[in-house]
Amino acid sequence: MDAMAAELGKVPPQQLEAEQSVLGGILLDSGGLPAALEVLKGDEFYRDTHRVIFQAIQELFERNATIDLLTVCDHLGQKNLLESVGGAAYLASLAEAVPSASNVAAYARIVSDKAVLRRLIQVSAEITSWCYAGGKKIDEILDQAETVIFSLAERRVRSGYHSIKEVVKKSIHIIEELYDRREMVTGVPTHFRDLDKLTAGFQASDLIIIAGRPSMGKTAFALNIARNSAVESRVPVGVFSLEMSKEQLAMRLLCAEARVNSQKIRSGFLSQDDCAKLITAAGQFNDVPIVIDDTPAISTLELRAKARRMKADMDVGMIMVDYLQLMRGRTGIDHREQEISEISRSLKALAKELNIPVVALSQLNRKVEERSDKRPILSDLRESGAIEQ
To answer: Domain residue spans in the chain?
Structure first.
């Protein structure tokens, strides 16, 4: 941190009093440590000596040992670190100076916030150096920049625990609402009767995988679901098409709506009746809440950023990805199966974050065709990894 200060000519964001209060509060009452550990990992402390003291406290906690002024001093002494952190006198001063041992969580949040600001300064400097250095493609720089920024945001946002009383109360409220509505479909309707009967609609925060071999109708089926949800139920749908262009998808939607053979469009042999049907179908899509992004080989970070914007702009109610194996994961992943696993986890996290269903199309491998029983099983998912879960 001293190097950062020297480089910038300024003292980086920090709050030494908050750091001292976290440590002093724990030394007085170790009951505040679990709350601090929900916020801090240890590297958030600006002063190196404070990091060493907190690490010693963590080590005692992991051993289920008593944590107080005496035991922490003894542990640091055994590691020949006591004098380097200021000796027993400094630790005693921490315990004496803390305003209130009951406010450790609040002090820890201050320490964490200052650490995030310092990390942002550091990341900004790194991004600047990448831009000046050259040698990297702009997409690679953007991907790396998004990765480090999102990692900061994800680390900061942590879900706390909730009492079963609180969770049950909310669950009863949901059950009462469902009872009052008494509807077969409680999620996003697909308007495929048997599918809606099985799923009660696609539920918020779910990642749904639609899998099949190439040219078996995955895209057509997914587009029908998107069309039905948007047209019949007015649910805004975002479609990420990695295989087909937006024009190809639009033609498929028009052909399905107008009930015109797509082969006629490709060949140009359309009757006047066909043209009239297509024009009528096009008019019906004027106010349908479907948006299409056909960025090829889109990365998980780019897709998440665009999905967030869709949520902000049009309150998107469902996301579709066609198809999963054409996406890119984070840079630096060597094995394709690991990359697909990372992509599927990212899509599941997106579904939870936006609280909407995310539908991802996936390829099946050739094994399904080699068996006498052609019914697919989970292990038939190509580069399955975490998709099976």
So the answer is: 2-154, 202-388
